[in-house]
Design goal:
The protein contains 2 helices and 15 strands. It has about 325 residues and is of the alpha+beta class. It has 2 domains: about 60 residues; about 200 residues, Sandwich (Jelly Rolls), CATH 2.60.120.560. The strands form 2 sheets. Strands 1, 3, 4, 6, 11, 12, 13 and 15 form an 8-stranded antiparallel β-sheet that branches. Strands 2-5-14-7-8-9-10 form a 7-stranded antiparallel β-sheet, with no helix packed on it. It is elongated and about 160 Å long.
Length: about 325
């Protein structure tokens, strides 16, 4: 008897001869996949694609419209804010101007008037500043554009009144036509020499040609200084200087006007420069009533004389 075990080539040799070969190894079995929601792929028709594209375009157009509406809304709101700010700014400006005006009025009430205006208190003003012939109470200044003159020119230029003397002429006076000749009367005006060195004002001007009577307050420029003369124009006779004086530095600022004024009351004649009295004179043979005038000259042989007048004030006593 042979004790050897039979050879089994398929066995690896580690099996039990009584139980047989070991069972094969057990591997984990993967879990089954969850069922698909659709066993077959969805097929989108051509008509469905067109509808989707239309929907997308509609949404895009709607978004554009919403953006446009939003921009317009922002613009309108911004415009409203700008308008509000502009109105607020204008309101602040008006308030500031009103405040400044009230301050100026207050200062005027507190500040004393110049001597000229103090001396005509209680009188009434008869004309507005020299800007045109549309003056108060139908006062009219001579206009050489309508009535040519031999001695020079009297006309309104840029809301000022220009009196000019032609070259070689002795002087030119432009008179105003009042409602009636005045005996007691006052005139103050701003005066600026544009060419030449002499200007003046006249009161109680009456007569024609060689028979003119008047009082003239003349101011001459001598370098930076001024010389003033009260002259009595006597009909058919040489003019007479009633009074003279000097003011140092009167014309030191060549570009600035000065004010000259004169008042006649009874036999008294009062003279003012820059609002202050510079002289007065009594004339026992004083002239009767007349009108007012503004003068320039004499002119030089080549250039003549030109004076610019503005802001004329004519006063008469209240009746």
């Amino acid at each position: 008897m042979n004790d050897q075990q039979p050879f089994h080539p398929q066995d690896p040799g580690n099996h039990n001869p009584y139980t047989g070969p070991p069972p094969p190894p057990q591997y984990p079995v993967p879990a089954p996949l969850p069922p698909s929601s659709s066993e077959e792929p969805t097929i989108i028709s051509h008509s469905t694609t067109q509808e989707l594209q239309k929907t997308k375009r509609s949404l895009k157009i709607m978004r554009i419209k919403l953006i446009i509406l939003l921009v317009m809304f922002l613009i309108s709101v911004g415009g409203g804010i700008t308008f509000y700010l502009d109105q607020a700014s204008q309101s602040n400006t008006i308030t500031s101007l009103r405040s400044q005006l009230e301050t100026i009025k207050s200062q005027r009430k507190q500040a004393p008037a110049d001597q000229f205006h103090q001396d005509i208190q209680g009188w009434q003003i008869e004309t507005e500043p020299l800007t045109s012939n549309a003056s108060l109470n139908n006062i009219r200044w001579k206009d050489s554009d309508k009535e040519p003159m031999d001695l020079g020119y009297c006309h309104f230029v840029a809301e000022t009144y220009r009196v000019e003397t032609k070259p070689g002429k002795l002087g030119n006076t432009c008179i105003a036509t009042l409602n009636s000749p005045q005996h007691d009367i006052a005139l103050q005006v701003h005066m600026l020499l544009l060419q030449g060195n002499q200007a003046g004002i006249a009161l109680r001007w009456s007569g024609l040609g060689q028979n003119i009577a008047n009082y003239q307050f003349i101011v001459k420029k001598v370098g930076p200084d001024g010389v003033w003369i009260l002259r009595k124009g006597i009909p058919a006779a040489d003019d007479t200087n009633l009074s003279t004086g000097n003011i140092s530095g009167l014309f030191s600022d060549r570009g600035s006007p000065i004010t000259i004024g004169m008042k006649t009351v009874g036999d008294g004649i009062y003279l003012y420069i820059n609002g202050q009295m510079v002289g007065h004179r009594y004339d026992k043979n004083s002239f009767g009533p007349g009108t007012v005038g503004l003068s320039a000259g004499p002119g030089t042989a080549n250039t003549g004389c030109e004076v610019m007048f503005s802001n004329a004030e004519i006063y008469i006593p209240k009746s």
